[in-house]
Every structure is written in structure tokens, then in C-alpha cells.
Amino acid sequence: MPISHFSPYHIPKTFIFSSISVSAILTKEEQEESKSIFNFKAYMLEKANSVNKSLEEAVLLREPFKIHESMRYSLLAGGKRVRPILCIASCELVGGQESTAMPAACAVEMIHTMTLMHDDLPFLDNDDLRRGKLTSHKLFGEDVDVLAVDALLLFAFEHMAIATKGVPSKS
């Protein structure tokens, strides 16, 4: 739905998908306000949950399991999902649908996540924690993490190429 026509009917305090949760407290004033004007917080929460659901469906646990587990661990660890939401909002702004933008939005988040995984490796920042959880290389090992970083980058482009539907190749 285009941003200009956004009007949520019901805004729960917590949007939940599987083990991924984006939470916010909407005051009564914010809930009332959202009925008449665009509510940025509600929009961000709704789209973040759509992105989380799509990411979980996109990156399945399959062979090689350790690499895919590392990819999923980092990708589904949470975050505000600002980059994919901007991708979706840009599409909606020109009259497109969320479903059309979702493959590109997921690819953007996959690329962002792989840069964070790469940055956390011992030969760069050597971070132990990201978003309050152990970094992927601490949990799965540096060797698996390096392969997961490469795989996630390649998978982002594969996902966008295969999953994108309804977008003409030329304008």
C-alpha cells in the first residue's frame, strides 16, 4: 500500500514473527493519531516485521548446515531493518507494492548483514558481541563465518534475481 494511503486498522503493541520480535509501546495518543495521519513508528514496525518474515522464508536451513546456520543466525538476530524499509518505502512512494520490492529489500539486508559479519572477524574489529549476542565467528568459528559471509553476499544477488516478480526488465 502506498505510504500516502497508509492507515492501520489495528496496531498491536508487539508485532511478533517466530523468534523475531520488533516491539514498541504506542501510547493511546499515538494510536488515535495513527487513524487520521501517517504514523511513522507504526509503519516502521509493520514493515520490519514483513522484512523479518521474508528473510526467515528466504534463507532456509539446508546443506551445508553450518554455513546456512551461521547466515541465519546473523541475519535473523534483529535490528531496525532501516535499509530494507527504505527500499520498500521508495517502491511504495512511486505506486509500487511491498511484495514487488521485498526481494530487493531482503537482498539489501543480506548485504548489510554480511558486512557486519565481515567487520566482526578477528582480522578486523574482532568483536565478540553484536546486538547483545555472540558474533557469528565466536559461535561457529572463523572458518565457517568467512564462508558464510561469502555465501550471504552471493545469495543476496541470487535471491533478488530469482524472487523478483512483476518488474519489467526495461522501461
Automatic annotation (TrEMBL):
InterPro entries: Isoprenoid_synthase_dom_sf (IPR008949), Polyprenyl_synt (IPR000092), Polyprenyl_synt_CS (IPR033749). It comes from the Eukaryota. Its cofactor is Mg(2+). It holds the Pfam family polyprenyl_synt. The keyword Metal-binding applies. Keywords: Magnesium, Metal-binding. One of its GO terms (molecular function) is metal ion binding. GO terms for cellular component: cytoplasm. Belongs to the FPP/GGPP synthase family. This is Heterodimeric geranylgeranyl pyrophosphate synthase large subunit 1. It comes from Abeliophyllum distichum.
